[in-house]
């Protein structure tokens, strides 16, 4: 017997996460470049992120050099794109970041650290964009996936923290806090299917 799937979040009805989706009107267009092996990953945060951000899209692949969607985005946001990736030249986004030129389009790489590195290295155009990285004192709340990287964040968390800084959201009135709270619930919801994990 085939499993019934939610038409909105495309997950099995039993693990539908539509009740966790919160509508956030982000100013910067978010483009999530998702590694193909992450698409069916039930513990991934991209579905919740994409469904919650009004101004976002997901493009699946590894090498996007000839991807028409990417080429159109680069043309549309000419010289106003950036990538969130901790390269050696990346500018650190922190609460004190006031002089940073805010991009109109931000690329997020979704995959394990190894996959994200491969994606970054396979796409020369990504390396040519301005790079941003987050301050290393952010404590993530990603409980359902393990990594050996210190202070590792989910794609959702990294995106929310980056947008908070780039859009100058004050901590007390930060529109991304609601989505981060939903992410905590998402972790609890996923853990409920395997209480011993």
TrEMBL record:
One of its GO terms (molecular function) is tRNA-uridine aminocarboxypropyltransferase activity. GO terms for biological process: tRNA processing. Keywords: S-adenosyl-L-methionine, Transferase, tRNA processing. Its EC number is 2.5.1.25. Pfam families: DTW. Belongs to the TDD superfamily. DTWD2 family. This is tRNA-uridine aminocarboxypropyltransferase. It comes from Colwellia hornerae.
């Amino acid at each position: 017997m085939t499993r019934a799937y939610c038409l909105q979040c495309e997950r099995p009805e039993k693990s539908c996460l539509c009740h966790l989706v919160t509508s956030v009107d982000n100013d910067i267009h978010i483009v999530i470049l998702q590694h193909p092996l992450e698409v069916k990953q039930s513990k991934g945060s991209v579905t919740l992120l994409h469904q919650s951000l009004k101004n976002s899209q997901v493009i699946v692949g590894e090498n996007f050099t000839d991807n028409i969607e990417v080429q159109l985005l680069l043309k549309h946001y000419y010289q106003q794109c950036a990538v969130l990736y901790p390269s050696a030249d990346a500018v650190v986004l922190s609460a004190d970041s006031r002089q940073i030129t805010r991009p109109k389009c931000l690329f997020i790489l979704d995959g394990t650290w190894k996959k994200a590195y491969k994606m970054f290295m396979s796409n020369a155009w990504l390396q040519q964009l301005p790079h941003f990285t987050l301050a290393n004192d952010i404590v993530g709340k990603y409980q359902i996936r393990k990594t050996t990287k210190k202070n590792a964040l989910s794609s959702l968390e990294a995106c929310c923290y980056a947008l908070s800084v780039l859009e100058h959201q004050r901590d007390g009135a930060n529109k991304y806090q609601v989505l981060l709270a939903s992410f905590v619930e998402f972790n609890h919801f996923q853990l409920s299917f395997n209480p011993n994990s």
